[in-house]
Amino acid sequence: ELELKLLADVGVVGLPNAGKSSLLAAASGANPQIGAYPFTTTEPNLGVVNIGWASIVVADIPGMIEGAHEGKGLGDQFLRHVERTAVLIHVVDGENEDPLGSWRTVNEELRLYGEGLDTRLQLVVINKVDIPEVVGRQAELETEFAAAGVQLDGFISAATGEGVTGLMRAAHEMVKETREAQREKAATAGTPKRVVVLRPPPANIRPEV
C-alpha cells in the first residue's frame, strides 16, 4: 500500500474560507481554485515562491474543521501532507466572529493528529485587511491574541497582496533555520544511511558489452 505525502517547505493551514488558496496564488505562480464559499479547495495545491535567488515550496492545505484528525471533511487525508513541512502559516479569517477560537480549533486538530504538528513553527496572520471592518478590529485582535499568549505575525490581504511579500520572506528565513537545525541534528546522530543513486549512462556513450 502506497501513501502519497507532499514534500513542501511551508504548509498553509486554517479554517475553510480563511483565504489560504488566495494567499498561495498571491505569493506564487500557482492557480488554485478560489471561491467565496467554504471547501472550495478539495485537494492540496503546491506553489513555488521565489525570494530573491532562493525559493520555497508552499502547500495550500484544504480547510480543516473540528474532527479533521478523525477524517471529518477528509481532514486526516489532508493533514498528512503537512507532516514534512518545516513551517506552518496559520491563516485566520479577520471576518470570523471568533478569530482566536478558530485558531484554537485548528491547533487542536493539529495536536490530536500527532506527528508533532502542534509543535511545528507557526506564522500566525490575520487575513482580509482589505475589508474596512477587519482594519477596524486590528487593535482589538492584537490585544486578544496577546492576552492568550499568541504572537500575531502580521495582518495581510491575500486578495490585494498587502503584507504577503514580508510574510513569505519571514517564512523563508524560518525554513532555512529549521532545515539547518535538522541537518545538524542528523549529523550528530551518527552515520546516515547510505543512499543508492542510480544514474543512466550518457546518451552519447555506448555501454560496454
Short précis:
The protein has about 210 residues and is an alpha/beta fold. It is about 30% helix and about 15% strand. The protein has 6 helices and 5 strands, in the order βαββαβαβααα.
Describe how the helices and strands are arranged.
Blueprint: E1 10-13, H1 20-27, E2 45-51, E3 54-60, H2 75-79, E4 87-93, H3 99-113, E5 121-127, H4 132-135, H5 138-147, H6 164-188
Parallel strand pairs: 1-3, 1-4, 4-5
Antiparallel strand pairs: 2-3
Structural class category: alpha/beta
Morphology call:
globular
SSE succession: EHEEHEHEHHH
> Total number of β-strand segments?
5
Question: What is the makeup of the main sheet?
Answer: 5 strands, mixed
**N→C terminal distance:** 38 Å
Helix content, binned percent: 25-40%
Low-confidence stretches: 33-42, 65-76
State mean pLDDT (0 to 100 scale).
Answer: 79
Q: Order of strands in the sheet with the most strands?
A: 2-3-1-4-5
Q: Cα-atom Rg, whole angstroms?
A: 19 Å
Strand content: 15-25%
How many DSSP H or I helices? 6
